[in-house]
Model the fold of this input.
Amino acid sequence: MRELDQKKTTDLLNSIMEFELAGVVRYTHYSLMVTGPNRIPIVEFFKLQANESLMHAQQVGEILTGLEGHPSLRIAPMEETYRHTVQDILQESLNHEKKALDLYKSLLDVVNDASVYLEEFARTMIGQEELHTIEIKKMLRDFS
Done:
């Protein structure tokens, strides 16, 4: 195995943590903005996404501090589109999940063949983010 690039890894983990924390804010906002006859199940979906983003941020933070990194107090930048139809919100969610997927894939690239634990963590997170994109794509089908 090769040596883990600790600086690159902790920098990327910080970016992931900031992105996951932005997800908490994003999904909480979405849960408040949904209206219409299908509001209740969609609100529950977004609340679950917000909670999961917080859990992911905490997991990443634990790994980050375990590698002697210092967790950021920032969240990733978010833009407000002021478009709150269910379709718009789901499309924004899909874009968010795709970016999260890219971040975890970058983590896998950085830790590949340097840490079995971090490889497995990255792969697990990639799997979860792929599942989220599949779920959101299925939800978007009604709007095609």
About this structure: The radius of gyration is 16 Å. The mean pLDDT is 96. The chain is about 75% helix and 0% strand.
